[in-house]
Amino acid sequence: MPKFLTLNFKQKFSDFLKTVFPETKFELVLFLFFLTAYGILGTSIALNYRIIFDDRIPWDAYFSFDNRAIVMTGGGYERHPLANYFFDWLREFAYLFSGGRKDDVFRLVLAWCSNIAISLSLVQLYKYLKNIINLPKKISLLILFFFSFFTTPILLSFTPETYTYTLLFLVLFNYYAALKLRKEEKIPATALALTGIAIGGLTITNIVKVYIPLLFEKQVFRNWKKFGNLVLRVLISVSVFLLLFFYRLDFKVLNLLNKSTQQYEKFSTHKVTPIWDMIVSWFFGGNMLFTSFTLRDYHNKKGFEFKALFMETYSSVLPYLFVAVILSLVIWSYAKNFRNKFVQILMISFLVDILIHTVLKFGLHTSYIYGGHFIFIVPLMIGWLFFSYKDSPKTLSSLYVIISISFFYLAITNVFRMVEFFNFLEKYYR
C-alpha cells in the first residue's frame, strides 16, 4: 500500500476515534462520571431484579419497552429492519460472560452496554455544546447535567433497546455532520451509507434524518455539479440500505407493505386520553419529566402473567408548567436562530418525529419511549439560545436561572419517581 494512503487511513482513523470517544482529559472525566453514576443504577437493577431481561416477558414490563423481543430478535423487521444483526452480536457478547445463560450476569452485560452507549451520548452532547456552539464550560455543564436527569437517558442507561443505541448514533451523527458543515466539507458517501445502516437499520423512520444535513452543504442548490454529487451520495446510501434490508426479507417486498399497514393501525389507535394531553404528557413531557405511574395486568400469551408499569398523564399544574417553559425556550431559540443552518438541521429532524407521533399519531399513547429519537434536540436548542445572547449578560443570567430552577425541579421529581420504580421492582420483579 502506498505510503500516502497509509498515512491518510491513519489520519482518518485517528479523527474517527477523536470524534466518537472522549478527546480531552475533561471529556474522559465526564464519561467516567456518567459511566459510574448510571452504572451503579444499572448494576443494582440487573443483579437484584429480573426486569431488564426475563425470558418469559417479551414486551411491556415497564413503559412499553420490548427488552426480550429486541435482544432475541432485534424487533419487527418493518420498524427495525437491520436491528437483528446488531442485537445478535450484542446477545452473543453477553453470552460470553454468562456462559450462554440468561441470568443476572447476562442482564448485567446488557445493562452496561446500554450504560456505555448513554454515557458516550452525553459526551457527544458536550462536544457539540463546546465545539459547535462554542459555549463556556459552565453553561455547557449545566445543560449537560440537566439533560442527564431527563427520563430518557435515565431509563435507557440500563435498558437494552433500539432507542438506546439510536440516541448515541443520532447525537454522534449530528455532531459529525456539524463538524463537516463548519469546515464546508461534504459528508462522504461512505459515511452516509454507514450512518444510514446504523440509524435507519435500528428504526427505519430515522433514516431520513441522515440526509437532512446535506440540504445545507455550501451552494448545493446553486451548482449543478454539487447537486448531482449530493444525489449520487444519497442514491449510494439508500441502495446499500435497501439491498441489506431486502436481503433480510428474502426480497418479499409485499410482506413489508402488509406488515407496515398492520403496525400503523395497531400503534395509531386512539385512546380515551385527549390527544393534546398525550402530546404534552407523553411525547414532550414524558421524555423529560416522569409522570405518575399506573399498573396493568399483562400475560405473555403462553400462560405467564406479570405486572406492567406505564405512565399516566400529569395530574398537577407544575409538570405542565415545566413542559411549557422548556418548549418555550426551544421555540424561542428556533425563532432567534432561524437563519442558523445548524439549528435548522436540528429542528427539521425534530419535526420528523413531531409529524410521525403527533400528527400521524403513531405510538402517541406510549410516545414516552421514543425519546431516544429526538429528545436530545432540547438541550442542543437551549444551547443555541444561550449562544444567541452571548453579548447580553442580563438575558444570559436570566436563562441560567431558568435552567437552574428547572434542573432542580426535574432532579427532585425524577429521583422521587425512580424510588417508586424501585418499589415496583421490589414488589414484582425480585
From TrEMBL:
Transmembrane regions listed in the UniProt entry: 28-52, 105-126, 138-156, 162-179, 191-212, 232-251, 272-293, 313-335, 342-362, 368-387, 399-419
Q: Which Pfam families match?
A: DUF6080
Q: What UniProt keywords are attached to this protein's entry?
A: Membrane, Transmembrane, Transmembrane helix
Under what name is this protein listed?
Answer: Glycosyltransferase RgtA/B/C/D-like domain-containing protein
